[in-house]
């Protein structure tokens, strides 16, 4: 059935469609997100250094922007991948940012692009309850903030999906302070307590670049 449709429909993008359905129909029905696509000639497939095909930014009724990547999984028809257990790397990345406008979120697209490049070039995936060190400065380059690193959790709202190429999870990046990072470096098991403490005040695990309080 899938192969027959692929032959009949040249522009079918089953992976992309499945991701859209998870967000546009289930989480944000009736909402058209701001979408940013990478230029085709800049994509790694064509010799460039862009490893993602695009990003969507949704406005959550809970007061934040929900950023989603496209390209960590198989988006287009890849017949030899039909029926696989996992679609490519097995996840797309999300980031929830406490900002009023889409324009204030665009820096995060560069950050997610860098994380995608790391996975594709190092063949190293990100998983929930993992921390990602920065260089000690704000994750928003050029803007002062106590948020200097990231942790990974399962997206607090988007559930994993099944696609023709295999399963797709949604992993959420969450900004943390340098103090929290140092605590995790000393004892990585503390990440569970950090997540638990953060969720008490911030159940959706939204990154607030103005946060200075430490949860560890």
Structure description:
This protein is of the alpha+beta class. It has one domain (2-201). The protein is 27% helix and 26% strand. The protein has five helices and eight strands; from the N terminus they run ααββββαββββαα. The chain has helices spanning 2-8, 14-27, 106-122, 178-186, 191-201; strands at 34-37, 54-60, 64-70, 86-97, 130-132, 147-154, 161-163, 166-177. Strands 1, 2, 3, 4, 5, 6, 7 and 8 form an eight-stranded mixed β-sheet that branches. Strand 7 and strand 8 (166-177) form a beta hairpin. The model is unreliable at 3-9 (pLDDT under 50).
Gyration radius (Cα, Å) is 18 Å
Instruction: Compute the separation of the termini in Å.
Output: 52 Å
> How do the SSEs run, as a string of H and E?
HHEEEEHEEEEHH
| Mean pLDDT metric | 90
How much strand? 25-35%
Largest sheet: 8 strands, mixed
Write down how many β-strands occur, each being a DSSP E stretch of 2 or more residues: 8
The low-confidence runs, each spanning 5 or more residues with pLDDT under 50, are 3-9
Any descriptors?
disordered N terminus; 216 residues; 8 strands; alpha+beta; eight-stranded mixed β-sheet; globular; 5 helices
Topology:
Blueprint: H1 2-8, H2 14-27, E1 34-37, E2 54-60, E3 64-70, E4 86-97, H3 106-122, E5 130-132, E6 147-154, E7 161-163, E8 166-177, H4 178-186, H5 191-201
Short description:
Strands 1, 2, 3, 4, 5, 6, 7 and 8 form an 8-stranded mixed β-sheet that branches.
